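Checklist before submission:
- one chain only
- standard amino acids only
- sequence pasted in full

Submission:
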Amino acid sequence: AAAGLMSPAMGAALAHLRDVAQSHAQAAPRAARDAAPAARAAILPLALVPARLEIFARARDPFAGVAEIAQWRRQWILWRAARAI
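Returned file contents:
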């Protein structure tokens, strides 16, 4: 993509990156449960990755800026993740 223009190749590359990130995000809860209790707080923000990837997947133009996760939703996701580990 030159000058921020979306192309089919750029779309395919971004989709691949989302897939890789999703697979890593799916492994994060297992890693958090196996981590030392002191390290769990550092791992907790990874719970936001699936929501962020969902927003990126819906974005028509990834160069135009992407909407943030609503504050209430961020808090809900983090609370649920903290209770799960």
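Reviewer check: Residues 8-34 form the longest helix (27 residues).
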